[in-house]
């Protein structure tokens, strides 16, 4: 099956009317180019994409910009972003991963974390720094669910590889190992300690 991709390079058009023209039904990926400075309110609400990639140069994402995009799983945001409305991803019930720069990761965790976690069983924020080539990961929700489910682990790693490919391709980040970050974040590489062993250790 051919993936349908919606690419928007600049703000010369009405984003809402363009995206909802009917031609882009069943779109799989939305790519927003550097010529777009502001993703306007409700511009892509109700779309059906699984992946969202926003290029460097985009500065603002307004309220409900991607509201109720029910299939949206992966989001890559640019370092150039200076304003992200806390309701931008309201109702995105399949959202699993947001990759963003370190400077806005805390804002996402503080302003959006509870709202996103309420709507999704598993959500993680991957922060990156293109200067140091470093990444780190924080789970907003889902650590226990993932640790206790081998299928959930494999599904998550599969999604992480997609994000990793985007970071390498779009950000030029080499040597990134998000699967290792993931294992560290959910402590998959640490043996479980039984309660009786803990008691004996005391």
Which descriptors would you attach to this protein?
disordered C terminus; 10 strands; 3-stranded parallel beta sheet; single chain; globular; alpha/beta; 7-stranded mixed beta sheet; 202 residues; 23% strand
Describe the structure.
The protein is an alpha/beta fold. The chain has one domain. The protein contains six helices and ten strands. The strands form two sheets. Strands 1-2-4-6-8-9-10 form a seven-stranded mixed beta sheet, with helices on both faces. Helix 1 links the parallel strand 1 and strand 2. The longest helix is centred in the C-terminal third of the chain and has 22 residues. It is globular. The termini are far apart.
**Overall strand count:** 10
Q: SSE order in H/E notation?
A: EHEEEEEEEHEEHHHH
The chain-level structural class is alpha/beta
Estimated helix fraction: 25-40%
Rounded to the nearest angstrom, the radius of gyration is 18 Å
Q: How many distinct helices?
A: 6
Largest sheet: 7 strands, mixed
């Amino acid at each position: 099956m051919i993936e349908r991709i919606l690419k928007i390079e600049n703000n010369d058009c009405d984003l809402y009317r363009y995206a909802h023209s009917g031609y882009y039904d069943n779109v799989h990926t939305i790519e927003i180019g550097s010529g777009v400075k502001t993703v306007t309110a409700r511009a892509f609400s109700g779309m059906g994409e699984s992946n969202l990639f926003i290029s460097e140069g985009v500065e603002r994402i307004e309220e409900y910009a991607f509201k109720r995009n029910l299939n949206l799983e992966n989001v890559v945001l640019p370092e150039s972003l200076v304003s992200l409305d806390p309701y931008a991803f309201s109702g995105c019930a399949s959202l699993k991963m947001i990759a963003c720069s370190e400077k806005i990761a805390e804002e996402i965790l503080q302003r959006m974390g509870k709202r996103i976690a309420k709507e999704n069983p598993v959500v993680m924020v991957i922060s990156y720094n293109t200067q140091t080539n470093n990444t780190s990961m924080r789970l907003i929700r889902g650590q226990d669910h993932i640790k206790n489910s081998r299928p959930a682990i494999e599904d998550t790693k599969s999604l992480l590889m997609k994000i990793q490919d985007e970071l390498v391709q779009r950000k030029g980040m080499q040597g990134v190992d998000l699967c290792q970050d993931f294992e560290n974040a959910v402590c998959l590489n640490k043996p479980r300690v039984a309660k009786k062993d803990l008691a004996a250790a005391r």
